[in-house]
Specification:
- It is built from ten helices and eight strands.
- α2 (80-90) packs across α10 (312-327), α3 (115-131) crosses α7 and α9 (293-302) crosses α10.
- The chain has helices at 3-15, 80-90, 115-131, 153-163, 179-187, 239-242, 247-259, 277-283, 293-302, 312-327, and strands at residues 64-66, 69-71, 105-106, 108-111, 135-136, 145-150, 192-202, 226-238.
- A hairpin with a 2-residue loop joins β1 and β2.
- It is of the alpha/beta class.
- The strands form three sheets. The protein has a four-stranded mixed β-sheet, sandwiched between helices. A two-stranded antiparallel ribbon has the order 1-2. Strands 3-5 form a two-stranded parallel ribbon.
- It has one domain (3-18, 79-209, 219-327).
Length: 338
Amino acid sequence: MSRWIAATMAGLVLMAQPAGAAPRGPTTSPEGNPVGPGAPAPAAAPAPVVRRAPPPPPPPPQPTTVEGLVVTARPAAPPVDTVSAFVAEVSAPTANGRLARWDRKICPGVIGLKPPYGQVLIDRIAAVSAVVGLETGAPGCKANMVIIATDDSQALAKSIVDRNPSVFARWERGMSRGEKALGAFVETPTPVRWWHVTRTMTADGQSYTQGSSVRVRSVGRLRANTRDDFNHVIILIDVKRVGVIRFEALADYITMIGLAQIEPNADLGGARSIIGLFADRDSGAEPARGLTEWDAAYLLGLYSANRDVVRGSRQERDIARRMLQQLGTPVSSTEPSE
């Protein structure tokens, strides 16, 4: 499977369209006043009045910073059922019914963005990956997270699926979400679309294919002899459909869907998440400016959950439990029963 990258990258470079003009900066000052040509001149400042300065207010609570993620003071902890529903809604299981994740190392590659923006995107993916325990490959590594910016993602998706069906594991059983999901990947007109290809590994990380012989441990009711790892991910950014959006928010959105297999049509149920970036923007709501506390807790939960499970529902419970710990809810008696 490793040879798909060199051939595919070469083909995709030729097909990918330039991302177009770089995102435009704000047209207001940090205080919200109009700036630039044609803006009214600021009013003259009144004469200063000398008076004794009042005592300084107490300093605000400082955020707790984790390399790449910032967790600030939060409101009351969410209900347990709300967190569990969020996990179940956003998690897209593999064909084997489990939740896949990267194992140890990733290598993001960007096509179609101007180099400064591509580097910002790669740096953000690397920073968050480090938090969840992943290593990012050095420059020149073989890309397994391919991110392509184009002005017509639907045409590009159809072209590369038709020309390179094996890249999408179209005929490989158990390595993708199937033909129906692949059709939605091609046909759904979204600002960003993604496709994850997984591989089945033994529980201790040996490569495994159907019919091969490997040494496994004894079988249990709750633990499996295999797990699902990401083999590669393809992410297409449609710069026309993305429209006007903060690039930092877009980078975090891509980071989220690159590190976890997210359900494209997830109903967030009011949870604040970068996953709702475009839905919030299009509905007139203020979208998240980056990964939220819920998003950070989900990723940390995914990358600490048991991987060698029989059913993905056990992983979802692991994730929900970790999220509740991160979000401040006691979990001593909240774990759902089998």
